[in-house]
Inverse folding.
C-alpha cells in the first residue's frame, strides 16, 4: 500500500530501527516531507543510484539523513519557482 507515493512496507519495516533509503524519481516537496516524517532516512534518485547509493548508506548508518544531488537540485528549483511566482501557500503541500 502506498501513502503519498511512499510504500508503507518500506517506511515501516518489520525492524523499526532499520534505516530506510528510498529510491525515487520524484522531487516533490510534499512527498519528500511525508516520507521523512514517516521515517525514511535517505533519498537517492534512480538516475544517481550508481554514484550515490554507497554514500547514502554510509551517511544513514552514521545517523545522518541523505538527499542525492539530483533531489537537492530539484527541490531548489521547486522552491525558487514558488518564490518567484509569489506562491504563499503552505510549504507542506
Amino acid at each position: 500500500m502506498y501513502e503519498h507515493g511512499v510504500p508503507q512496507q518500506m517506511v515501516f519495516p518489520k525492524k523499526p530501527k532499520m534505516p530506510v533509503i528510498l529510491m525515487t524519481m520524484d522531487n516533490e516537496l510534499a512527498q519528500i516531507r511525508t516520507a521523512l516524517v514517516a521515517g525514511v532516512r535517505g533519498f537517492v534518485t534512480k538516475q544517481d543510484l550508481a554514484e550515490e547509493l554507497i554514500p547514502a548508506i554510509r551517511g544513514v548508518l552514521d545517523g545522518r539523513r541523505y538527499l542525492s544531488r539530483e533531489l537537492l537540485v530539484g527541490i531548489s528549483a521547486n522552491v525558487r519557482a514558488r518564490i518567484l511566482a509569489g506562491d504563499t501557500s503552505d510549504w507542506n503541500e
Remarks:
- Strands lie at 2-3, 6-7, 20-24, 40-45, 66-67.
- The CA atoms of residues 60 and 79 lie 25 Å apart.
- The first helix runs from residue 8 to 11.
- The longest strand covers residues 40-45.
